Amino acid sequence: MTLTFEVDPTVDPALTDGVLALWADVSNAGGAVGFVPPVTAEEIRPALLKHLTGMAQGTHRLLVGRDEGGEVAATAFFAFNSHRLMTHWVWLYTVMVHPKHQGKGYGRDLMAAVEHTARTAPGFEAVEAVRLGVRGGTGVDAFYAKAGYKEVGRVPGAIRVAPGDDRDDITMLLPLT
Description:
Blueprint: E1 4-7, H1 13-28, H2 41-57, E2 60-66, E3 72-80, E4 89-97, H3 106-120, E5 129-135, H4 140-146, E6 150-162, E7 165-175
Parallel strand pairs: 4-5
Antiparallel strand pairs: 1-2, 2-3, 3-4, 5-7, 6-7
Helix pairs in contact: 1-2
């Protein structure tokens, strides 16, 4: 079975609760999505509200993947640049696939949907590249490399996961042109 992807889904309590549950489950399984375990959905809620506010303001877009039961199983948030010299690329944030779906190729499907969205969705006409930040030490940079992203920058020890556990902040880029 594959995921069904939707750009700019209707934001309602079911979507909000689904994204919060996904984010908590991914974080608590060790996913590098801005939190370290243990974390609750309520601790994550302010970060999600920032994304949702950006959506309401038109600065963020959401790509959501739903499983065969209609549950939120994957996400990626696009953030447009407001600086006039950087409007030709977007940031990608909160890229997640639920742990119960990992190993099924859904991550690869999500990244293909991200690229498709950036190339074809209304509002993305000026976008020439997608950038994302990756927490070093997780191996996920190899996953993104397989999806066509190239490492374009690295700041050693910029992410402090815990005292004595500093990770590199890796910037990756997918050119669309």
